[in-house]
Amino acid sequence: MSKFWLLVKQLYKQKVKAKSFIFTIVIYIVAISGVMFWSDIKEAFFQDEALQIALINETDAELEALFESTSDIEFTFSNEEMTELEKQVTDGDYAAAIFVRDQENSLTAEIATFEPLTFNDQLSISSILQYAGKLYEVQQLNLTSEQAEKILQSETVISMKNLNEQSVNGKSEDEKAAGINASFLVGFLIYSFVMTFLSMITTDVASEKGSRVLEVLLASVKPATHFTAKLTGTFLLALTQITTLLLILGLLFMFIDGGSKWDRVIVIVNELSFSYIGYAVAFLLLTIILYLILGALLGSLVSKVEESSQAMMPAMILGMIGFYVLISGMASPDTMLIKVFSYIPFTSGMVMPLRIGATDISSSEPILSMLILIGTVILMFLLSLSFYKRSVLTYSSGGIIQKIKTVLKVTT
Amino acid sequence: MTLFIDQVTKRYQDFVAVDNLSFTIEKGEIFGLIGQNGAGKTTTFRMILDLQETTEGDITWNGTHINSINRDILGYLPEERGIFPSMTVEDQLYFFGELRGQQKKNLRKEVDYWIDRFELEDKRKAKAETLSKGNQQKVQLIASFIHKPEFLILDEPFSGLDPVNMDLLKNAILELRENGTTILFSSHQMDNVEELCDHLCLLKRGVSLFTGSLLDLKKQYGKTKLTIRTEIPKEVLERLEGVKEIHVGKDQYTLTLINESYAQPIFDFVSNGKYIEKFSLDYLSLEEIFKDKVGGTHV
């Protein structure tokens, strides 16, 4: 076995058996399954009783049809006196009492509570009331309720036609929504993998340097071999983690609940284009490589392993910026901020998939961003390699800048 | 000639770590590099190992430039100990052996032999981080020569070892030499250097103060250390001709003479033709020479 593969094997074997590596996979699975199966979990563990709402209809219209009870909210039309009902609310028989009145052909509602309603309940009730209000006004126009319903349910069918033939066909809202969801997942995966493996490689190089085992290793292998072995080993670990994760989650989704979650995944995947998935995977892998290079370089600067968290901070911040920009773009993916950050190599992996999935961009933009990323990876690799040779055996104190200065001072 | 260091200088921006250093190590020889902290020993080792480049000068091994030799012929024990904390003793030795180009199956005999020799049998499957400092050092030492290197560099191999382990190490070094390994080592413990080295180089702030055989170094100073046990008071002894310095020990005096020729008259005076319990004329110890050469008291 060549020295390179010997180093890769040593790193891989050591890390893959580590409790923290296995634990991370378990955490991911628990977290992702938790989100996916939330509704089932909620049903199983938190069987909330429906919110009891009493309603006094002081208008002449029939309003029962407008306030349909659901599993979350149960409406009870009451004929009791207002004060009596308020007493029942105070006693806790009802969560709230709503008094619906007519005011110049418009509906007004007063909600009386004793315990404040939660924000979500408030939102639900208010949207039901809004809808009822509209319906009520339509009813005042002496339409049948079917006619009224039709007006309220009417929706304009919109299709996109892009006159610029150079540009890709416009995406439908559904496609864009799927794009946003998938991009958040891709961005989140990139962010969390980058953080995990950045910290792994930085700490690993730092601990080898700190324990001086590096000096022994470098007496028999070239720094370039050591550097690339570290990158390869950690990258293989990342691939192992991603594959294991996808495999386990895939099996979970397929076999639990008759595969209903799997169907949902398939629906989302079908909404995404083939090129989107290709780009997302390429951006994921390239961004991980880029951060690994940076992590190994930063790890080589420190003198002892305790300093590694301080050393990796700049890279962590870069990753965080990318992730926050992505979050800001979830609501509106077309802003200038998103455009700019979709070209910056350290953030493009998180931001560009969002633009590809959720906006109408020409095919040249992702290619350009990808080329910039590939160029940066190559450049960073070469720069880091030349710097790594000099920094791995230089021990100095102070901050990162001070360390870089020391390396330059003692090796030039 | 095996290792040849030819007028090597290592210069940094603001100081010179090694200045015009030259020495030769013959095959199968034990060579000591001694000097205070910061004398340039580790820098010299790193240049030999091609971990650092020389600013000027050449280092060759059997006539081949050091940066183009097969690195598997080298073994290295750095001054600050470093092993993989979570790897077992046995795995560690196999790993370093394989890294130096050995097949795992060929290493088994060596690994077993040295584990037994250094009394680590019960620690074979233990993780390195659970071992005592001394045992960690033994593991690292074995790791440095498990691949039977032609040339072994040991940077402060004795520091932190108890006397029993120190003897184990000394015997191991001698055994390696018998098997043809050329050894270069540095140490603060001069008695070890004296015991093991054939030749040495004395470094002070990057400059060689002496390079050559230990005996030659001692001859430079001559036999000037005189130890006597006598009833004669110190005041009388220190007034004798040729006595440079006198040190009062527990039950004896140690005199430093200007040169060897004064010993005979002193013997005649002290013994006065009678039996004398102790009169011993010897070379200075390496430690004394070292202190004298580097001009410091800390070794």
Write a short abstract of this structure.
The complex is a heterodimer of chains A (412) and B (299). Chain A is α/β, with parallel strands linked by helices and 412 residues long.
Descriptive keywords:
heterodimer, A: 412 residues, alpha/beta, D-Maltodextrin-Binding Protein, domain 2, four-stranded mixed β-sheet, 16 helices, B: 299 residues, Rossmann fold, Alpha-Beta Plaits, 2 domains, six-stranded mixed β-sheet, four-stranded antiparallel β-sheet, 27% strand
Rg measurement of chain B, Å: 23 Å
Main sheet specs of chain B? 6 strands, mixed
Count of structural domains of chain B: 2
> How big is the Rg of chain A?
30 Å
Reported for the largest beta sheet of chain A, the result is: 4 strands, mixed
Describe the fold and architecture.
The complex is a heterodimer of chains A (412) and B (299). With 412 residues, chain A is of the alpha/beta class. Chain A folds into two domains: 3-34 and 172-411, no CATH class; 50-150, Periplasmic binding protein-like II (D-Maltodextrin-Binding Protein, domain 2), CATH 3.40.190. Chain A contains 16 helices and four strands. Chain A has a four-stranded mixed beta sheet, with helices on both faces. The longest helix of chain A is centred in the middle third of the chain and has 38 residues, at 173-210. The mean pLDDT of chain A is 84. Chain B folds into two domains: 3-213, Rossmann fold, CATH 3.40.50; 223-282, Alpha-Beta Plaits. In chain B, the strands form three sheets. A six-stranded mixed beta sheet of chain B has the order 6-7-8-3-9-10, with helices on both faces. In chain B, strands 2-1-4-5 form a four-stranded antiparallel beta sheet, with helices on one face. In chain B, strands 12-13-11-14 form a four-stranded antiparallel beta sheet. In chain B, a hairpin with a 4-residue loop joins strand 1 and strand 2 (16-25). Chain B is globular.
